[in-house]
Amino acid sequence: xxxxxxxxxxxxxxxxxxxxxxxxxxxxxxxxxxxxxxxxxxxxxxxxxxxxxxxxxxxxxxxxxxxxxxxxxxxxxxxxxxxxxxxxxxxxxxxxxxxxxxxxxxxxxxxxxxxxxxxxxxxxxxxxxxxxxxxxxxxxxxxxxxxxxxxxxxxxxxxxxxxxxxxxxxxxxxxxxxxxxxxxxxxxxxxxxxxxxxxxxxxxxxxxxxxxxxxxxxxxxxxxxxxxxxxxxxxxxxxxxxx
Length: 243
Known about the structure:
Blueprint: H1 3-20, E1 25-29, H2 34-47, E2 52-56, H3 63-76, E3 79-82, H4 86-99, H5 108-129, E4 133-134, E5 136-137, H6 141-145, E6 159-160, H7 167-177, H8 181-184, H9 197-201, H10 205-212, H11 219-231
Parallel strand pairs: 1-2, 1-4, 2-3, 5-6
Helix pairs in contact: 1-2, 1-7, 2-3, 2-7
């Protein structure tokens, strides 16, 4: 990949879309990870940092993630707002438990998935307040291929600039545009479950990229990735009755 060429193409892609649709700015959820950092950096370069607003949305989050989010905002010069979702999340879970006879164990997956949905609702709330602002997506090609996202959460967006880039390609662009080293090379995790992405998936992003690019991987890894891909294919296809 020609990093300079692809980076410039993405920036022009953003500018063209904004010009054609008479848009002004971007509301971006800043997690402290590399994907949101690269997206924020690209939009700051395309639109000007004054037209980018980053939203840090802690919910039992790590202090390190906040410091990384702050570092990214300072690096690219955009405003970082905080909207703490902890009380909202806890109230949500408490009410669910009050009206349903369920144990904490039964709520593990539901609790993990409600967090990105609350975050996406928050981003769109902010976007609705700011006329001409939209919400860019931050999912990369490897995550999308295996369906590593929450329906109605981090897959929702108005424009996507990383969806055709593997994790390694995202890192290379991040290095090129100046994402801080500690952020761009941070071990990826969702900041929600206490596990890294690869621990949750059971496969490496580098191997997912190899499968996407038809490169050689061992047969067991190939089968595992294919199973995950097929198991989550429902996230991309909504059964629709047509008369």
